[in-house]
Amino acid sequence: MPAFQPPDAGTGTNHTEETAVQPTIGRVVHYQLTQQDANTINRRRAARATRERITLDELGNRAEAGQTLPAAVVRTSPVGCNLQVLLDGSDTHWATSRREGNTPGTWSWPPRA
After folding, report:
1. CB-side exposure of 46: number of CA atoms within 13 Å?
2. Where are the alpha helices (DSSP H) in 53-94?
3. In contact, 78 and 97? CB cutoff 8 Å
């Protein structure tokens, strides 16, 4: 069995199941928004702005498909991770059952500094 190797975060390197680091509760990963995520976030913010009689600017910057944002792992399962995505504003987005990858709707390890 090969020796354990940490992921080469952000390099696109694929790891075998034996060597891949598994996400655990509390870890921070990068999540890439889908078009549906962005639409949901923007619609929710617009409704809140109307309800609270404030401007959208007070709630945060517009969410866009493909944006990469930090996310906290809140639950893991065999089908993926549930994430609290930290938006560029005063709210969060709940992304459920997301898998590791580098396309919209997936999470990845942050690059090492």
Report:
1. 8
2. none
3. no
Is the pLDDT at 108 greater than 80, yes or no?
A: yes
- Domain boundary assignment for the chain: 28-108
Q: What is the pLDDT of residue 57?
A: 82
Q: State the Cα–Cα distance between residues 21 and 36, nearest whole angstrom.
A: 28
Rounded to whole angstroms, how far apart are CA atoms 102 and 47? 31
**What pTM was estimated for this model as a whole?**
0.79
Neighbours of 101 (CB within 10 A): 11
Helix and strand numbers (H, E) in the chain are 1, 5
Can you tell me the distance from the alpha carbon of 24 to that of 11, in angstroms, rounded to the nearest whole number?
21
- Please state, as a whole number, how many other Cβ atoms lie within 10 Å of the Cβ of residue 69: 18
